[in-house]
Design a protein that fits this description.
Layout lengths: L13 E16 L2 E10 L2 E7 L4 H7 L5 E11 L2 E11 L18 H13 L4 H11 L2 H9 L13 H16 L8 H10 L4 H4 L10 H5 L2 H14 L6 H13 L15 H26 L21
Parallel strand pairs: 3-5
Antiparallel strand pairs: 1-2, 1-4, 2-3, 4-5
Helix pairs in contact: 2-5, 5-6, 5-11, 6-10, 6-11, 9-10, 10-11
């Protein structure tokens, strides 16, 4: 069992522990090859660098997604902990516990699933209840919903992340509609619960999260539409207008084509889900950066390329 995790290493410490290789780049400096790594376990990420004479051979052997045992020393580099790797070896399945490397929601999965089912109980429309009856009775889908991440890196990138994000979007949306009696509460609830269902097929299950072939080729928005259309096809006389409104929420929840949605939100319910989705995704990502970088005593985060800015940590 792994005993030393990324969140507990200290500058100047000699270490022997295991990490998943998230990224690997073979580089050269003054004629000498070296490998730059991004490493991770269930508690976070660390950079690593290997300057061994066998860097070329090591690079060919150590695939992204593999687990490696690492001997080295922690040092500060550009304000961050980095492991100067002295020795690294790839581990085979059975030599490590996969649970040490897959991040998981702090909320127990059973609790998250219970909240998902409770949200369904708040729906009164009989056709929507039949739709969710099919979903919760589909063991494969239930397993996927419980285990899927909400994203690859940026937000909710951990087991249970999809459920956590889905429930937050549902709560935010339901809170937001209180001043607006014309908004359909059932469609808001249903739309929030299924808006990201395509992510059950978009991502692999670990030890690092990456895109499946259909996830990269098709994307979770189209995958989500296909999943919901398949369930609806099994329900006799499902209202066509209700089907169209649900599909529209999935299709438009990223806002516009520049963010991956084929259409913009054109119903009040779709517009609310779009904003609730954005709010929760960005708040989760910002919160993770603040939480992981604040213990270093910094005022500003490292530069966040995706947002093109630094974040204030105090």
């Amino acid at each position: 069992m792994k005993k030393l995790y990324s969140n507990s290493v200290k500058d100047g410490e000699n270490i022997l522990t295991e990490f998943v290789i998230r990224q690997k780049v073979l580089k050269e400096y003054e004629g000498k090859a070296f490998i730059s790594f991004e490493l991770s376990d269930k508690y976070g990420k660390l950079d690593g660098v290997y300057w061994g004479d066998d860097a070329l051979e090591r690079s060919a052997e150590l695939e992204v997604g593999s687990v490696a045992r690492i001997w080295g020393k922690v040092q500060m580099y550009k304000g961050r902990n980095q492991i100067r790797i002295e020795k690294i070896e790839k581990l085979s399945e059975g030599e490590y516990d996969i649970a040490d490397f897959i991040p998981i929601s702090r909320v127990p999965l059973d609790e998250l699933w219970g909240s998902f089912v409770k949200a369904i109980d708040g729906i009164s429309d009989e056709n929507l209840r039949r739709l969710f009856g099919l979903i919760v009775c589909d063991e494969k889908m239930v397993r996927a919903l419980r285990n899927a991440p909400g994203g690859k890196k940026w937000h909710h990138a951990y087991v249970g992340g999809l459920l956590e994000h889905t429930l937050s979007v549902c709560r935010i949306a339901l809170t937001g509609i209180r001043p607006y009696p014309n908004v359909d509460r059932d469609i808001i609830t249903a739309g929030a619960l299924i808006h990201d269902i395509g992510k059950t097929k978009e991502f692999t299950s670990g030890p690092i999260f990456d895109y499946t072939e259909e996830g990269r080729l098709i994307g979770h928005i189209i995958l989500g539409i296909l999943i919901i259309e398949d369930y609806i096809s099994k329900i006799p006389d499902f209202p066509s207008l209700l089907r169209m409104k649900l599909v529209h929420i999935i299709a438009s929840h990223h806002g516009d084509a520049s963010m991956g949605s084929p259409v913009k939100p054109m119903t009040v319910e779709a517009e609310i889900i779009f904003h609730a989705d954005q709010l929760d995704a960005q708040a989760n990502a910002f919160s993770h950066i603040i939480e992981t970088e604040s213990p270093e005593g910094k005022v500003w985060s490292n530069y966040v390329n995706l947002k093109d800015r630094y974040l204030y940590l105090r």
